[in-house]
Amino acid sequence: QETLVESGGGSVRPGGSLRLSCAVSGFTYRPTSMGWFRMSTGKTQEGLASIGDGGVTEYADSVKGRFTVSRDNGKATLFLEMINLKPEDTGTYYCAAAFFTFASLRPGHYKYWGQGTQVTVSL
Q1: Per-10-residue mean pLDDT for the chain, 123 residues long?
Q2: How far is CA 9 from the centre of its chain?
Q3: Can you say how many angstroms the Cα of residue 83 is from the centroid of all Cα atoms in its chain?
Q4: Residues 90-118: pLDDT tens digits?
Q5: What are the E-state strand segments in the chain?
Q6: What kind and span of H or E run contains 40?
Q7: 3-state secondary structure of 90
Q8: CB distance 107 to 116 below 8 Å
């Protein structure tokens, strides 16, 4: 069964850093496009970062310059490096996978989802 498992969330102060991981397993073929999404209280689901086949990336304006998405195909793991975290970055972070070739921040493009990991940024 296809499974995505996020880890690395936690509580940090504003300006802090975190690195999220998403372990991929159970797929017959490696997903070609993966993304990170965030759900925050009172807000709609937000696409943050995506990486497509060939390494093309796309970022939401709110995280450009602060978040970096990468993947280790050998270890079947997706990463999200987050620096200069702000209180508005608080939320549950989900990774998602699909089999198209482009990077996409649209949740509807993804079929497979993890259970999420909580990130809290506060004093």
Answers
A1: 97 98 94 96 93 93 97 88 98 96 93 98 95
A2: 11
A3: 14
A4: 999 999 999 988 899 999 999 999 999 99
A5: 3-7, 10-12, 18-25, 33-39, 46-51, 57-59, 67-72, 77-82, 91-98, 112-113, 117-121
A6: none
A7: coil
A8: no
